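stage 2 :: seqdesign
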């Protein structure tokens, strides 16, 4: 199951709708995948920087890069 990491620091475990539409809804737009170690990935808003979305501290820490907006943390094998 995916975890929704919100830019405000809150999170929602067991985010179930990992269809394309569900992931787009969670991040607020078109998605981009950021691959992490150990088979994990972040699903982020691909236009987040351009849209000036708020900084996401938890996602940035996990990816070691600047991540903005709400993101989904999930296993790479959860989507095809």
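stage 2 :: out
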């Amino acid at each position: 199951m995916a975890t929704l990491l919100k830019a405000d620091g809150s999170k929602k475990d067991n985010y179930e709708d990992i269809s394309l539409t569900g992931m787009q809804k969670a991040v607020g737009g078109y998605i981009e995948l950021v691959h992490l170690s150990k088979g994990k990935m972040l699903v982020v808003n691909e236009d987040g920087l351009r849209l000036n979305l708020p900084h996401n501290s938890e996602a940035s820490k996990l990816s070691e890069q600047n991540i903005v907006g709400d993101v989904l943390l999930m296993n790479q094998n959860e989507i095809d």
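stage 3 :: structure notes
- Residues 20-27 form the longest helix (8 residues).
- The longest strand covers residues 40-45.
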